[in-house]
Amino acid sequence: MTLDPRREHITFAPFTAPDRVSVFDVDPERIEIRSTAGDLIEGRDDPRSSFPAYTIDTPWDAIQVAYFTSAATWNYLTTPFVFTYPGVQTREIEPWTEDGQTWRRLAVTFPTTLPNHNPDQVFYYDTAFHQRRMDYRPEVTGGSPIAHYTHNPRTFDGFLFYTHRLVHLSSENNVADQDFAPITIDLDTVELTRH
Fold first, then answer.
1. How far is CA 110 from the centre of its chain?
2. With b meaning 16 or more CB within 10 Å and e meaning fewer, what string describes 75-108?
3. From the centroid of its chain, how far is CA 117?
4. For the CA atoms of 108, 192, 46, 63, what is the dihedral angle to 10 degrees?
5. Are 150 and 131 in contact (CB under 8 A)?
6. CA–CA distance from 139 to each of 21, 55, 58, 119 (Å)?
């Protein structure tokens, strides 16, 4: 994947086939699937509005999968810098204790101009200010509470990235079901370039 941290833009290659690429942009919000030669295969403006009411059996088309993956991953990899974007509001809330550790929590509200799982999310930080967890309720999957844990921090070109992520369902009282991770994300390497 390749992303631009200064604006919500991300590409995945390959995507659904060796010769296809997904491209997500905002302002206006649009997702495209293109050939590696650059030819448009399929595209959709305002892709979020295309999601049907969610059930566990709700099928998504390739554009919807590309949108969900793109918006989520861009936000994961630009945190905490995305907190400084126009319209993003932050405030520290009461700490959280888990596994004998106390984590500080930051409540973040994202504007509609930054597509994300949902507007209101909570980020957890340990005493070294490493992100340990984030909570959100993805609107396109019915708004169930999610606890997303970050692991294996590694430094690339002077920036810290979490190279292993586990996404768990959470209860209404904020306790994650860590026996099952329906989504895992692993990064092998990160390369930063200046433009």
1. 13
2. bbbbbeebeeeeeeeeeeeeebeeeeeebbbbeb
3. 7
4. -120
5. yes
6. 25, 12, 14, 9
Reported as a single tens digit per residue, the pLDDT across 166-192 is 999 999 899 999 999 999 999 999 998
Q: What pLDDT score was predicted for residue 19? A: 97
pTM exceeds cut of 0.90: yes
Name residue 120's beta-bridge partners: 109
Long-range contacts made by residues 182-188, C-beta under 8 angstroms, separation at least 24? Answer: 185/73, 185/76, 187/161, 187/162, 187/163, 188/163
Q: What are 75-97's pLDDT values in tens digits?
A: 999 999 999 999 999 999 999 99
In the block, tokens 């060796």 appear at 18
How far apart CA 55 and CA 121 sit, in angstroms, is: 22
Share of the chain above pLDDT 70, in %: 99
